[in-house]
């Protein structure tokens, strides 16, 4: 049985400076191969020579920093290539050494790692704002990390030593470095499970950014250690005596919560210091998982556990691989203490995370690609991270960092796939966020969700422990605008926007093909060429090559943009215009049609004028007339797609000045998130504002839990219509309103 006693916590600072001999003594405990030892020694002697005469801000020779980085890497039992690269990480940036030199002297692996680290270092402020510079700087770190996890391990060691010696810098630079450490490096260390580095980075940063609060917590912590150490020691002995009566092998030690962890609970979660039960804790380390649960049973049998404070991270590990049992108990003297129970392997992973799992094993053939793959398989969030980093390289750096922070670093809700895979999401996430975290195609084809074996809406907020099963349909219409209001993660939002953009582009393309084709059909028909003959003529190589189009669809798209026009095509093909009779309009103004709000200057008396049913124009709209032989003039809004194909039939029309108090029909579409009483609320809102409704139909979209409402209302003019739109937008769950064109 191992035991230890709590001692006073000292402020961070006054770190021991190591020599290369101490680095060597550290790595020789697990590296024995002569070639591996030579690689590290050669790297050290190379940088010792190259960095000669170069000093840090503190005044110490620069080589000391490289030695400390290497020493930190040996405490994580990193491999020889990683240690050598740690020694070499600044040599290209600070000396005349090139990447080719590194490759020639130390091999391809070292060269790749040093190159990635150098690219991070070489980012300059140039013309960027400070915010853009910081975002781009951080993205460089993540790009390097996504290619090889060893890059970030070295970068963490580099940052840890820089923070240990930060007092040598000016105050402004200290604060900038500390803030970046809290924003970027500590979260990375946390996600990789390297608690040892994470907690020290956080405490060192807090000491710089909030020195008063740091010292206050340090004082409270040491006072608690002084007052409670005897009570904790008594509890330790009682638990040890209980376990000793069994055959279970164990070690038991005391643990003190980090200063920054206490700071978060006090100042971010607003707990008083005395309300934090796990400031002091006992940690029991045993041999097997079964032993962990056996010890937990013994402790709960002898001490009263605090309800709601038990956590089983063995059955459900954290995304950073952390495993342990946590329970809070009331000791015999009334004091409350946390007890953590784990195996030795779990304890190593808890302290050094991914570095413990991929600790260098001599004699095994090292494969960096295989290691990277294993990391992605073990740390499921890392796969998402690599995917996000590779997919979003062209994205604005600030947006990229926002996506990464929300979707990766702020993820604290853990849900399960039906097969037991853990998916971590930010608070407030829905089944759609879950679907896109699994795969883009799963998200795009999602039509429903089962949570804990119950069918739920896609906008249901997920909680830790939920088992989520997404129902997909390959012929699903896919995402719609309403989904953007449902999802929480930037990953889901980004994929939905890409889908909608692609869909809109396809619809726009098809619409342009249709319009261009119809323009040609109408124009060619006037020249005595039917539709089939027209298509045969336009699809010939002669026409397509002349206008530089690969197929007839591209030609139709160009025609819809009037480049070329149907007339130009007819001229090229030698098709001449037939004689047509123009509409005979007299000079007399049409003023006798009192029932129509529109008139035509110079029109024949008694000419029939009607408002188009397709776009339902109303006073205030910009309008145009469309001449139909034998049927008079139909009035359309100028943006009505039904009149775009034949400009030759259009004529100017005007709204009359004295329209009276007449109302005109308008067809509108209301897009909503579905809920009970939705239609009743829409109808009552319109009635309350004295808007006449003649038609009201709704279509439910069960796959997205949205509803489209088709409605015909009567209003006197465009101003009233816009006012009605604003009123309807105040109805709960209405997110879009637009006019309909048939």
UniProtKB/TrEMBL annotation:
- Tell me where in this chain the TGS domain is found: 409-472
Its pathway is: Purine metabolism; ppGpp biosynthesis; ppGpp from GTP: step 1/2
Matching InterPro entries, A to Z?
ACT-like_dom_sf, ACT_dom, Beta-grasp_dom_sf, HD/PDEase_dom, HD_domain, NT_sf, RelA/Spo_fam, RelA_SpoT
Task: Supply the Pfam families for this chain.
Answer: ACT_4, HD_4, RelA_SpoT, TGS
Q: Per the UniProt entry, what is one GO biological process? A: guanosine tetraphosphate metabolic process
Q: Give all residue intervals belonging to the HD domain.
A: 62-163
| The UniProt record lists the keyword Nucleotide-binding | yes
What Enzyme Commission number(s) apply to this enzyme?
Answer: 2.7.6.5
GO CC term (a single one): plasma membrane
Keywords of the record, alphabetical order, are: GTP-binding, Nucleotide-binding
Catalytic reaction equation(s):
GTP + ATP = guanosine 3'-diphosphate 5'-triphosphate + AMP
Q: Which residues form the ACT domain?
A: 667-742
One Gene Ontology MF term: GTP diphosphokinase activity
Family per UniProt? Belongs to the relA/spoT family.
The record's listing under PANTHER family reads: GTP PYROPHOSPHOKINASE (PTHR21262:SF31), GUANOSINE-3',5'-BIS DIPHOSPHATE 3'-PYROPHOSPHOHYDROLASE (PTHR21262)
> According to its UniProt entry, what is the function of this protein?
In eubacteria ppGpp (guanosine 3'-diphosphate 5'-diphosphate) is a mediator of the stringent response that coordinates a variety of cellular activities in response to changes in nutritional abundance.
NCBIfam families per the record?
spoT_relA (TIGR00691)
- What is the name of the protein in this document? GTP pyrophosphokinase
Please tell me the species this chain comes from: Candidatus Onthovivens merdipullorum
């Amino acid at each position: 049985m191992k035991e230890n006693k709590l001692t006073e916590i000292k402020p961070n600072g006054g770190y021991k400076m190591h020599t290369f001999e101490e680095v060597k003594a550290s790595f020789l405990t697990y590296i024995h191969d002569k070639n591996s030892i030579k690689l590290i020694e050669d790297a050290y002697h190379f940088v010792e020579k190259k960095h000669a005469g170069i000093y840090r801000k503190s005044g110490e020779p620069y080589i000391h920093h490289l030695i400390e980085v290497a020493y930190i890497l040996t405490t994580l039992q990193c491999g020889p290539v990683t240690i050598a690269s740690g020694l070499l990480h600044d040599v290209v940036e600070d000396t005349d050494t090139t990447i080719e030199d590194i490759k020639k002297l130390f091999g391809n692996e070292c060269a790749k790692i040093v190159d990635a680290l150098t690219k991070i270092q070489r980012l300059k402020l140039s013309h960027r704002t400070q915010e853009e510079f910081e975002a781009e700087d951080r993205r460089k770190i993540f790009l390097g990390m996504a290619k090889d996890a060893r890059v970030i391990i070295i970068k963490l060691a580099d940052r840890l030593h820089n923070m240990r010696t930060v007092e040598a810098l000016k105050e402004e630079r200290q604060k900038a470095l500390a803030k970046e450490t809290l924003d970027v490096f500590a979260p990375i260390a946390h996600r990789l499970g390297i608690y040892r580095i994470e907690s020290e980075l956080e405490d060192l940063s807090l000491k710089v950014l909030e020195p008063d609060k740091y010292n206050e917590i340090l004082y409270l912590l040491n006072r608690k250690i002084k007052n409670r150490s005897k009570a904790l020691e008594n509890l330790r002995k009682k638990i040890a005596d209980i376990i000793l009566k069994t055959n279970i092998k164990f070690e038991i030690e005391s643990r003190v919560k980090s200063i920054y962890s206490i700071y978060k609970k006090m100042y971010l979660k607003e707990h008083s210091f005395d309300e934090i039960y796990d400031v002091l804790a006992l940690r029991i380390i045993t041999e097997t998982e079964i032993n962990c649960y056996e010890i937990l049973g013994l402790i709960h049998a002898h001490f009263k556990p605090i309800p709601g404070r038990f956590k089983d991270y063995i059955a459900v590990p954290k995304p950073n691989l952390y495993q342990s049992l946590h329970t809070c108990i009331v000791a015999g003297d009334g004091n409350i203490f946390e007890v953590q129970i784990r195996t030795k392997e779990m304890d190593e992973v808890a302290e050094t995370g991914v570095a413990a799992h991929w600790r260098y094993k001599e004699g095994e053939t090292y494969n960096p690609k295989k290691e990277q793959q294993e990391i992605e398989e073990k740390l499921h969030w890392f796969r998402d991270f690599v995917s996000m980093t590779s997919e979003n390289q062209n994205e604005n750096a600030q947006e990229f960092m926002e996506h990464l922070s929300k979707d990766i670093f702020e993820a604290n809700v853990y849900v399960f796939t039906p097969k037991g895979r853990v998916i971590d999401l930010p608070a407030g996430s829905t089944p759609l966020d879950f679907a896109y975290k699994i795969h883009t195609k799963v998200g795009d084809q999602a039509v429903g969700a089962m949570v804990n074996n119950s069918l739920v809406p896609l906008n249901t907020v997920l909680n830790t422990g939920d088992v989520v099963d997404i129902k997909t349909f390959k012929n699903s219409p896919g995402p719609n605008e309403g989904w953007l209001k449902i999802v929480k993660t930037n990953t889901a939002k980004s994929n939905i926007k890409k889908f909608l953009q692609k869909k809109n582009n396809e619809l726009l393309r098809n619409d342009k093909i249709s319009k261009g084709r119809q323009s040609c059909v109408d124009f060619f028909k006037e020249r005595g060429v039917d539709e089939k003959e027209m298509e045969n003529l336009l699809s010939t190589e002669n026409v397509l090559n002349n206008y530089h189009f690969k197929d007839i669809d591209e030609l139709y798209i160009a025609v819809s943009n009037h480049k070329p026009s149907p007339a130009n095509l007819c001229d090229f093909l030698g098709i001449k215009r037939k004689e047509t009779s123009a509409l005979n309009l007299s000079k007399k103004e049409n003023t006798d049609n009192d029932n129509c709000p529109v008139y035509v200057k110079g029109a024949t008396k008694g000419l029939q004028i009607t408002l188009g049913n397709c776009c339902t124009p109303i006073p205030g709209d910009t309008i145009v007339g469309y001449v139909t032989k034998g049927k008079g003039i139909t009035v359309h809004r100028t943006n009505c797609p039904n009149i775009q194909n034949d400009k030759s039939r259009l004529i100017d029309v005007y709204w009359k000045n004295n329209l009276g108090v007449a109302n005109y029909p308008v067809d509108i579409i209301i897009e909503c998130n579905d809920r009970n009483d939705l239609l009743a609320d829409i109808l009552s809102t319109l009635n309350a504002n004295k808007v006449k409704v003649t038609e009201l139909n709704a279509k439910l979209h069960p796959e997205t839990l949205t509803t489209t409402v088709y409605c015909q209302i009567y209003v006197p003019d465009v101003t009233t219509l816009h006012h009605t739109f604003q009123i309807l937008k105040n109805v709960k769950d209405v997110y879009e309103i637009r006019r309909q064109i048939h």
